[in-house]
Design a protein that fits this description.
Blueprint: E1 8-17, E2 26-36, E3 41-45, H1 52-59, E4 67-72, E5 75-76, H2 81-90, E6 91-94, H3 98-101, H4 108-118, H5 125-135, H6 154-166, E7 172-176, H7 184-201, E8 204-209, H8 212-218, E9 221-226, E10 229-235, H9 236-241, H10 246-253, H11 286-290, H12 292-295, H13 299-304, E11 317-318, H14 321-329
Parallel strand pairs: 3-8, 3-9, 6-7, 7-8
Antiparallel strand pairs: 1-2, 1-4, 4-5, 9-10, 10-11
Length: 336
């Protein structure tokens, strides 16, 4: 049985920013393949500075890639103004901070209606706004029409932002840290809302987050990103119950429910304009530092041999010399 065609696909995607004062270009996205199927929720996970937001902006058409291509519904993304306007009706962004993305001078009604007015919606605007607010969990919607953002709770503001994305009935949303600024008691409600929207509307989603716990609660598939590349991908169960990449294991080890001691990574991710040779994680890798990679016979490869980008879909994949050596030998990889 053939797999369904991806709704959104990135192939060999690259995004570089010119270096300042003669410095090398910064490779924010450095050869990424990523597929999102219809109705699928994919979590893009990694530390700050690993390229998640740059990748999301490129997928949205907000940045034009330096190399590679973005395909939506089987057609390459065009960067003409009219094509991008049509595309952004079908693919909507939900930002992290609702306080920053909502104009304090606009009522809830005007905030949600803005997209309809930009795209010259031919139907009943009031009915569309009410329907979007109701789907986002703000009921009865008319009670919120004339309210301003400062009159709402944080969770209600995030629901208004989601309603503003839903009002155009998109096929996919890109949610950048959608619950990071919310209290713990509200996060579950917003995640449950996103799951319900997937069931009711067939909505696909790319959820950008640093929190693997959030990925566990909402995603079908996880893509772990480090220094411009996806280094591990698979179903949420494959990646979070049997992590293979040392970076993924370190991210998992700091979750409250994790067993064992946290794996503290040394330093910050390297500058994307000075990506190290070999595995780009090797300068911080606890497996290399502990001598495990040496015992597996891959320490030199870790330091000198680059790994090819992972393919966009399919089963569990990992870009790690040590993990591949362990897998090929049939040796089990510990999860903690």
């Amino acid at each position: 049985m053939t797999e369904p065609q991806p709704l959104l696909s990135a192939a060999e995607l690259r995004l570089t920013f010119p270096g300042r004062r003669g410095a090398p270009d910064a490779r924010a996205v450095d050869g990424v393949d990523l597929d999102i199927a219809p109705g699928e929720i994919v979590a893009l996970v990694g530390e700050s500075g690993c390229g998640k937001t740059s990748l999301a902006r490129t997928l949205l058409g907000l940045e034009r890639p330096t190399g590679g291509r973005v395909t939506f519904a089987g057609a390459p993304l065009s960067y003409t103004a009219s094509a991008l306007k049509t595309y952004r009706k079908r693919v909507q962004l939900v930002l992290q901070d609702p306080s920053g993305s909502l104009n304090p001078r606009h009522t809830v009604y005007d905030a949600v209606a803005e997209g309809l007015r930009i795209h010259r919606y031919p139907g009943d605007e009031r009915e569309a706004v009410a329907g979007a607010l109701a789907r986002a969990g703000l009921r009865p919607p008319e009670r919120f029409f004339l309210r301003y953002p400062h009159e709402l709770s944080g969770g209600q503001r995030q629901r208004v932002v989601i309603a503003g994305a839903l009002v155009l009935e998109p096929e996919l949303i890109v949610a950048d840290e959608p619950v990071a600024s919310l209290d713990a008691s509200v996060r579950g409600e917003i995640l449950a809302l996103l799951l319900r929207l997937r069931e009711e509307m067939g909505l696909s989603a790319l959820v950008v987050t640093h929190d693997l716990g959030l990925a566990w609660n909402i995603a079908d598939r996880v893509a772990v990103m480090y220094l411009g590349r996806i280094v591990e991908t698979g179903t949420v169960e494959e990646v979070l119950t049997s992590p293979r990449h040392p970076y993924t294991r370190a991210l998992l080890s700091v979750l409250p429910e994790a067993t064992g001691d946290p794996l503290v990574l040394a330093g910050e991710p390297p500058d994307p304009s000075r990506i190290p040779p070999g595995c780009r994680f090797h300068v911080r890798c606890q497996v290399l530092a502990s001598g495990e990679a040496e015992r597996a016979g891959v320490a030199d490869a870790c330091r000198s041999r680059d790994l090819p980008p992972l393919s966009g879909g399919g089963g569990a994949q990992v870009a790690c010399h040590w993990a591949r050596a362990r897998h090929s030998s049939g040796e089990a990889i510990p999860t903690s």
